[in-house]
Amino acid sequence: MSARGNLVVGQSGGPTAVVNASLVAVIQEALRHEAIGEIYGMRFGALGLLQEDLVDLRRVSREILEDLRRTPSAALGTSRVDLGDDDVEQIMRTLQAREIRYFLYIGGNGSAATALRLHRLAADVRYDLRAIAIPKTIDNDLVEIDHCPGHPSVARWLGVSVREAGLDTEAIGTADPVKVVETMGRHTGWVAASTALARQREGEAPHLIYLPERPFATQQFLADVERVHRERGHVLIAAAEGLVDARGQFLAASQRSVEADPLGRPQFGGVGAVLCDLVMTHLKLKARFDKPGTMQRVSSILVSSVDAEEAYRVGQAAVREAVAGGGGTMITLVRDPGPAYRSTTGTVPLDRVVGNVRRVPEAFIAPSGHDVTSAYLDYIRPLVGPLPRYAKLQ
Amino acid sequence: MSARGNLVVGQSGGPTAVVNASLVAVIQEALRHEAIGEIYGMRFGALGLLQEDLVDLRRVSREILEDLRRTPSAALGTSRVDLGDDDVEQIMRTLQAREIRYFLYIGGNGSAATALRLHRLAADVRYDLRAIAIPKTIDNDLVEIDHCPGHPSVARWLGVSVREAGLDTEAIGTADPVKVVETMGRHTGWVAASTALARQREGEAPHLIYLPERPFATQQFLADVERVHRERGHVLIAAAEGLVDARGQFLAASQRSVEADPLGRPQFGGVGAVLCDLVMTHLKLKARFDKPGTMQRVSSILVSSVDAEEAYRVGQAAVREAVAGGGGTMITLVRDPGPAYRSTTGTVPLDRVVGNVRRVPEAFIAPSGHDVTSAYLDYIRPLVGPLPRYAKLQ
Lengths: 394, 394
Fold this sequence. Notes:
homodimer; elongated
């Protein structure tokens, strides 16, 4: 049951290494369906619909599409606007005026919420709109999906980069014994957890991994660092930017940059400096931090091939679902049972996704609170693929 | 004229992506010379000689050597000790006791200085020692050499990573318009300058590049950022960690971490936060920083093939020079004339290198003070090789 109509696709939230693969999949799949007329791209997410800043994606050449599939970041531009009810109604009028019946939004929870609002409003105004969310978030915090496109590539980037940063600290430990790697992850520890992939051999970096799922305890942290330093002569600590203390306050909230944020929002990114200060002040050990920041989420070089392929498939599935009459759903990835990794796509109603956050489960966090479990490694390894192996002298 | 004797090799200072290639070259070349008996590796640089913590490198298997050649960081470990005269005399006694006549030290200025001290002391005590420095520093600040092994790989890493981080900022500029990438470079701007490689098209990131060679002027900086933001809607700033103000004070010296450094040395790494504070406070624009830190210097994935090959050749040349009777020298790289890039190795007396720092020359800095010139790009591009090209929608 397909209604002839136009399609609009947008990208929202933080860019990733593979979100353009989802976009290209939407375009290439849409080109195959008679039911789809125009193929519009929103410039800068929902802003593009509010301001009618739309791109004609039928005009993009086949060659550019193929190159774009492997280009990191988000080619349409993204946004993080909070839409008011007036905005949503204005967008609905634009969709109706342009006879857009397929609304595909690539993003995380915020994008799913926008899709759900349009889905409900369309029902209210009796407009046949198929609003579908295509999952994308490096944070891996959407529910009802095995993992989120974008996350495996960050995990791969951090697995390799922390392995290398660990070799660096091991080499220079006599002069520079403590290093903190501050990862992304404002509310969950999925990204920080993935640094565990860095370990090629027992006892290698990261030696301590701190996740927002467990309140950060300063005395325990100092005891942990002191112990690892005593045992190994060097320490590599992985810490999520969103670490909180026992009162639920962000650790980074003590940083100057918070007060200076002109938008009044907490500025994440100070955890590395805070932890280094603690180590230097209390343990009298030299400490430095690496904060790869946005580089970790948009690397084309260390992209996971599973991730790139799945990001394409969820985009493709969204178009098929929409044309088949679906709507008000998010495309999911389901991990097939069996020893070899395989996934299939599925759908879930948006109201089961929106507003829910999947934190790292207990089964994936070591009892110590500063490491992951083998169950976690079994979960993440197939998504990331093999990492380069490095030699040691002894 | 070769004296039969043992050889010792060490690595010093910051690890790099290719310093193990130099080490493997020394071992593999040494294995070919009858004049060389034992092949010792110093554990943690000069510390290994002070504490007689030496590794028998003849016992390392051929397979491990081949893997090690492509393994980042410094497999022997490095150090940053300040040697006293007593230390140097003790090392000399160890060299004599172990009949070590070949002293090869892979590092930057500090390592060259150690080699020079041993060279002079050996002359004083009439011990036939061939002390040779093998150049290695990501900072690219040694004189009398076209470029330093280790630097081209950092330049390649930053070229790609800043290109990707720039696409990220371009995509998300409506929400997150200003990004600072803080690069290594405590006293020179070579590393920061290399971010210019990121530009694939006119007007792309980085939009502003600040080097320690020019005093940082706050009002000019704010005017520059404001202008780029007005013109493009987003700004990517590359800044060296060692930026100084007009009085020669490190910008990062205002950071808390400085006071907390237990060793009383300035802690670099605060420039990103300082610049973000300036932008947020004075321009009321949201700003964030990426500080890839040690990750930029030890990436095996983005290693420059020219760099890996040259790092091997300087190690090889050092052994040949030593066996041929040379000493008191540093191996150099000389760029051949002609359109295609080619280099040869040479030697320079250590006393022409030690204590001198090569800063980025005027001819490589744009008149604006916040960019590089085409002469610089002509210098750096052949060392780095082609970077991945990314697609754009328009």
